[in-house]
Design brief:
This protein is of the alpha+beta class and about 220 residues long. The protein contains 7 helices and 7 strands, in the order E-E-E-H-H-H-E-E-E-E-H-H-H-H.
Length: about 220
């Protein structure tokens, strides 16, 4: 249903499997899409990729959301209120102590929680990460992994602005994305929550990468 209405290819399911003794979860088979994840691929023009991604998300949000799956445990409440993770974020800030700038982190969190999505739910991807963007010939070629998709608040799809985009690419993504200041602030809050829990529980390599993400989140005005 989504694929014909979007400007980039997405995985199209061709078969569905049911849980059994060998694998106790539903599973699917999708058509192959060529490309490499942006996390490891060479991106020819980051600003162009940011523009294309914003256009994709804008198109996704205008698809009729009637009957779409609401946020819940199945997608880690992506599309739901950030308040779901408020206490975890505050507890993690306390636990990390001097490892994070406490006042700056709380300011970002409070600004995010002061806003709410008060419009009809829209389609979200739910996990817009560099590993889920396929690049071919240096350009964004497809968006994959809709396992966290649903309908609700699109703020969580802004997170890639801090986790992958930098400088002019981040600025272009924000300018091209149909997201108001409040939605952007909530997206920043989602990015902060994920960075905090990764700093608290990740391995050394994850923490090093996440430290750079956290710096971007705290340095970037909402």
């Amino acid at each position: 249903m989504l694929a014909p209405q979007l400007p980039l290819p997405i995985p199209v399911p061709v078969a569905r499997g049911e849980p059994d003794a060998g694998f106790p979860y539903p599973w699917s088979v999708y058509r192959w899409l060529p490309g490499e994840p942006a996390a490891i691929a060479r991106v020819g023009d980051p600003v162009a990729l940011a523009t294309a991604l914003a256009g994709f998300l804008n198109a996704l949000r205008v698809v009729d959301a009637t009957g779409g799956p609401a946020p819940g445990e199945h997608n880690f409440f992506r599309g739901g209120p950030l308040a779901t993770y408020e206490q975890e974020a505050r507890d993690t800030i306390d636990a990390l102590g001097a490892a994070v700038p406490r006042d700056a982190a709380l300011r970002v969190l409070d600004e995010a929680l002061a806003t709410a999505w008060d419009r009809p739910p829209v389609w979200i991807h739910g996990d817009v990460a560099a590993s889920n963007l396929l690049v071919r010939d240096g350009r964004l070629a497809a968006v994959i992994d809709f396992g966290s998709s649903g309908v609700g608040d699109p703020a969580c799809d802004c997170v890639i602005a801090w986790t992958f985009l930098h400088g002019a690419a981040r600025a272009r993504f924000r300018a091209a994305l149909d997201a108001d200041r409040e939605t952007w602030a909530r997206g920043r809050g989602w990015a902060l929550w994920k960075a905090l829990i990764t700093l608290a529980g990740g391995d050394d390599a994850e923490r090093a990468r996440t430290r750079r993400v956290l710096d971007a989140i705290l340095d970037d005005g909402a």
